[in-house]
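Lay summary. Proteins are chains of building blocks that fold into shapes, and those shapes determine what they do. In this project we predict the shape from the chain. Here is one chain we studied, written as its sequence of building blocks.
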Amino acid sequence: MQRRVSATDARVHFGELMRQVEEDGQPIVVEHSGSPRVVVLSVAAYERLVAGQEAQEDWRELVDRARDQIHVDLGGRELAPPETVLREMREARDEQLMDMR
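And here is the predicted shape, written in a compact code that computers can read:
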């Protein structure tokens, strides 16, 4: 279960809070007036979080570049809907299987 502390407790016991986060590796949610406001987490957890965001951005950039390249390769023609592509691939596979018999 995620540990939660009030903003006042976090302020008064911040050194202890930091030690617990470092030792346990578990983030602590700091609440104000009963609402979660911030999270205290270790530097290692923060770096993993940032690296994950960068990887996600890299993935999106790759998809965008691939989409652009597909449009160039198609030379202005429209890309067939996925259902059509799958149906055609299945039909080609079925023909190959029939030829092997």
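What the prediction tells us: The mean pLDDT is 89.
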